[in-house]
Amino acid sequence: MHPIDLATTNSLRPTSPLPASIQPCFKFTGDQQELTPSIAELVAQKTAQKEFFYGIEIMAQNEGKAHCVDFHDFLPLLPSFISFVWLKQFTDAIRRTGNFDHVTSIQLIPQLNSHIAAMPHLSLYRLTQQHVDAFAALNLSNVLIVRGDSLDEQQDYRYAYQVVEYLRRVRGDNISIAVGGYPEGYTSLTSDAPNKTQDMKYLKQKIDVGANLIITQLCYSGDKIIEFIKDARNSGITVPILVGIIVPYSFSNYQIIERITGVRLSPEARIEVEHLSHDDTKVKDYFVQLMVRIIQQILEADLGIYGIQFFTLNHIEPTVEVLRELRLRGIPKETAADD
């Protein structure tokens, strides 16, 4: 997931080195053909139509092999796009070679583009101007720019807005650029109390220099997400905002996410989950129901938000369960063509 910095952490990233070439492992449905490659265009279209949609985020590989995704699992409502977490191996590979030939997420995108819009993440960690130019030369349609939780003296860019500005200047309108938004502030970067005014200023700066859309950091409070969206709109930010959702599948998984991101349940909710910690299924079910309520709350707030980004951690089933529960609640609303 983009807010969890896998460019520097050991907790979730695969440990195998990158192979020179990796075989894709995707099973597409018959409906996944001739789709719009630009995520900015796709999101704008869905938003204008007030149509519920979602994307999935995965890690491109498991133990040296491409992570397998069977899109039939998501039927009847398919994801509109897929994005790839930036891994430490990717940073190591481009530092070693100066190019993106050994970056798995980049290798997989040509296999996806004729079926689903695909978006790699690009971390600023240890990134040089040579690397940014090499990325721009790939002529990809989409990218999510993340700063990363750590800085290195040798990296040429310290802030996401700088790369956004450069890529927009070099690629013009031929690339969709997404950036992160943080409903609870930059919890992985500082232990200080969040400065909402300053955080919103940083976010608007990224939009002003060329970002097309925002994907929010995970958050376990619908109220905080709604407050963030309202603050963004009041600050003059008009681009689409997609809400980042994660469904921890065990208490230990929740603890890892909490440690890396600094994002926490309320004290009362955490105690409730701790009481379920002996049973992974009950913990997963708790988070499935929590995320269903949050999504429903955001949609019912009538803020013009229709898109969700699921941070799957390569565990698809909890996301599928959330989608199943949403359908039981009439989300998305069925049309005559669905009957």
Describe the structure concisely.
The chain is α/β, with parallel strands linked by helices and 339 residues long. Helix content is 38%, strand content 15%.
From the helix content, strand content and strand pairing, which structural class follows? alpha/beta
Largest sheet: 8 strands, parallel, barrel
Number of DSSP-assigned strands? 12
Low-confidence stretches: 1-5, 7-20
Q: Please, how many helices?
A: 11
How would you explain this protein's 3D organization?
The chain has helices at 39-48, 88-97, 104-112, 129-136, 160-171, 196-208, 222-234, 251-261, 267-274, 280-300, 316-328; strands at residues 26-27, 53-58, 61-62, 65-66, 69-70, 81-84, 117-123, 142-146, 176-181, 213-216, 241-246, 307-311. It is 38% helix and 15% strand. Mean pLDDT is 88; it is low at 1-5 and 7-20. It has 11 helices and 12 strands. The longest helix is centred in the C-terminal third of the chain and has 21 residues, at 280-300. It has an 8-stranded parallel beta barrel with strand order 2-6-7-8-9-10-11-12, surrounded by 5 helices. The chain has a two-stranded parallel ribbon with strand order 1-5. With 339 residues, the protein is α/β, with parallel strands linked by helices. It is globular, with a radius of gyration of 19 Å. Helix 5 packs parallel to helix 6 and helix 7 packs parallel to helix 10.
